[in-house]
Amino acid sequence: GQQVMQIPQYQHVQEGEDFTTYCNSSTTLSNIQWYKQRPGGHPVFLIQLVKSGEVKKQKRLTFQFGEAKKNSSLHITATQTTDVGTYFCAGTGGTSYGKLTFGQGTILTVHP
Amino acid sequence: GAGVSQSPSNKVTEKGKDVELRCDPISGHTALYWYRQSLGQGLEFLIYFQGNSAPDKSGLPSDRFSAERTGGSVSTLTIQRTQQEDSAVYLCASSPRGGLLGYTFGSGTRLTVV
Hints:
The complex is a heterodimer. Chain A is mostly beta strands. Chain A has no helices and 11 strands. In chain A, strands 2, 4, 5, 9, 10 and 11 form a 6-stranded mixed sheet that branches. Chain A has a 5-stranded antiparallel sheet with strand order 1-3-8-7-6, with no helix packed on it. In chain A, a hairpin with a 6-residue loop joins β4 and β5. Chain B is mainly β. Chain B has strands spanning 5-7, 10-13, 19-24, 31-37, 43-50, 65-69, 75-79, 88-95, 104-105, 109-113. In chain B, strands 2, 4, 5, 8, 9 and 10 form a 6-stranded mixed sheet that branches.
């Protein structure tokens, strides 16, 4: 079945440093979505990427979808303490159409 | 409602007992999903309902797990003869159509089997 792998598993940064998490799929994806889960909370939808090579920005967050539609990244510029949480990528495609396969997530800690 | 509602928020049960977890999706959302999240882990897909189509049950870990969705709205996840490894947070999500516009998750039910 489809597998989505995410690295790193953990990332500790000082406030103001940049952060990137990477997502790789074993199969070509129809789309990829990113979610943020605050400690003790539930995942919250951030964005969806559909087109090959697509880049989208939300303030300090930049999302990219690879040309082959098998990988994606989330980059946060100048992290803030409010960025702490777990960031998940999730994709649909192939036999998993209609349901998302989630990566294991990257836990981000920001030290003030 | 304004969001996805799940009940109970916490459930402690004895090993071997049956439990029912409820999910009330956003009105008008045709797709409903159940995921399971163990402590510090990712989201494990359990089951997916889309409109009147047969549900995708491919993620249910054993025949002790079942789910139904009545009237295209409320869903109940039932776990029979609970075991300690069933302890996790059970998350329900809904979306307007096949998940293509992002999922809205509920706050989850934390299940503890003792």
